[in-house]
Amino acid sequence: MTATLRGLTSLGAMAAMLAAIPAAPAAAENFRITLPASAPDAQYDGRVLLILTPKGETEPRFQVAADFDAAQVVGITVDGLRRGQAVTIDSTMLGFPAESLSGVPKGEYFVQAVLHKYDTYNLANGKTVKLPAARGAGQNWRNEPGNLVSKPVKLAYDPAKSGTISLNLDTVLPPIEPAKDSEFIRHFKFKSPSLTKFWGRDTFITGHVLVPKDFDKHPEAKYPLAIFHGHFPDDFGGFRTTPPEADLKCVPAARFGEPCYNRIEQQEAHDFYKKWISDDFPRMLIVEIDHSNPYYDDSYAVNSANIGPYGDAITHEFIPALEKQFRGLGQGWARYLYGGSTGGWEAAAVQIFYPKEYNGAFIACPDPIDFRHYMVTNIYEDKNAYWREGPFGRVPKPGKRNYLGHVPYLAEHENRLELVLGEKTRSGGQWDIWEAVYSPMGEDGYPKRIFDKRTGVIDPAVAAHWRENYDLRHILERDWKKIGPDLQGKLHIYVGDMDNYYLNNAVYMTEAFLEKADPPYQGEVKYGDRAEHCWNGDPTQPNAISRLRYNSMYIPKILDRIKKAAPPGADLTSWKY
C-alpha cells in the first residue's frame, strides 16, 4: 500500500484506514527457517528476519524500508540456535508494514530469510549483552559479513491457508575488503584503549584521510585538520580523480527529479578533485571517521553510557594519533568540524563538549539539538511520541514530510519497523541510536527506553537524563557563562525550513537562545527557503547539488576562521605551498 498524506486530516484518515484492515484467520501459513549443518558456527544468537515482496528486481532484504510500498518483514530473536535447528515465524509475531503475516494479502511473493548475528560482550561494568558486532558494512544487516541468508524463492502465500513453508539459511555473507591507500586517500586504523576497556574486546576507530597535493614531497609541512562527521564511510567519499564513466548506467533519484543522479555525483566528485589540486586551494587534511559500533553505523562522537566514551576516544586518543601520523598541526586552533544530519549533530556536540579543542563547527541540518522538538515531539511535556492527544480524540504524529508537507509514514511506523528488526534497541535504526547514545543503561545492560516502542508512552525520567546530558540547546543555555567565551565565533548552523524530518524546529529554538547569549556567540544561523534535508547553507544551489559540496562549501569558511582566530606565532605558512 502506498499513501500520500496531506495535513492532519489525512494523517488521521490513514490511522483509521490501517486500523480497519481486517485480520485474516489465525491459521495463516507459517515459515520454518533452518540453520543448516553447514553453518560456520555451531550455534548463533541474533535476529531472524523473514521478508516477503511482490517485486523481484532485487533481493527481498534490500527492499525493507519504512515506506508502505516496501517489503513485508517479520522478526524473532534467537539465543543459541544450533546447527540443524529451526525457528518458526508465524502470524503471532510483529511485522511491518502489516502488523503480522495475517495481514499479508494472498498472492505470489519473493521470500527470503536473514539471520543477523549477535556477539556476546562482557562490558567493563560487569554487564553482559548480545549485540551485532560492526564487521565492515556500517551496521547494515543486509550486508554485514557473517550474517546468513536464504536464497530468494518465489512462492504463493495465502493467509487463510494453514501449513508450513521451509527456508534454509544456506548462504554466508562474505567479508568486505578494506579500502586501499592511494596518492590522495590514506587509511589510519587506531586501537582505542578506552573503548577496548569499555567493550571488553579490541575496539578500533578508522580514519579515511584525504591528504593534500604533494603531501609526500613536503615532509616539512604541517597541516590544519577538518573532521567531516557523518554516517559510516567505507572510504573517503565525494573525491574522484577521473571524469565520470563514459558508459555509466544511469541511476535515477526520485527525490531530486534527476534521471541520472549517479553521473551528477561522479562529476561533483571529480570537480572537487580538480579544486583540491588547484594552486589556490588550501593544503590541509580532511578525515572521515569510521566509528561504527554494535548499535549503529557511528557513535555520535560523544561519551555514552551504552556505546562507550567515544567523545574522549576520538578527541583525546584518535585525533592526536592521526595528527602525528599525517603531520597535523596538532592544536585546537587548527582543528575544525563539519557535517550534515547525524554529522551536523556530531559537529555541534563535539564543539560544545570540547570547546577549546576545536576552532569552529559548520553544522548542517543537525539531528534534533533541542529535545522540545525531537522531530515533532516535546519529550518533556508530551506524554506520547506517536499521538497528539486531547480530551475527545488523538491525531498521529508524522515521521517524515516533503517540501509540500506531504507525509509518507508516521512516527509509529518507523519505530515499529525498528522493533521488528531488533528488540532492546538493536535495530541499527535512527530512533534506536538516539536512544542508545542518550539514555542511561538499564539493569539488563541495554539502553533504557525513552518511550515504549509499541505504545509511544514517554518515560519522563529518561527524558530528564537526555535533557541534562545531550540536549544541546539546553546545555548551551545552562553552561554559557562557562563555555560561551570559548565558543565565540565557532557555531554556524544551516538548515532548510522544510527539512524532511522537521529538524529546523529545534534550530529555531537554539537560534533564539544564541541571539540573546552573553557573551555574543558571533556565529551564524541560516535557513534555506523550502529546502529539504540536508541543506548545507548554499542558497545558490538546489539540495541535489549542495549536499555533494560539504567540503568545498566549508573549507573557505575554515580559512576565514583561521585568519580571524589563529593565535600569535601560529604556523600559517608551512602548509601554504
UniProtKB/TrEMBL annotation:
The keyword Signal applies. Keywords: Signal. InterPro entries: AB_hydrolase_fold, Mycobacterial_A85_antigen. SUPFAM superfamilies: alpha/beta-Hydrolases. Residues 1-28 form the signal peptide. This is Esterase.
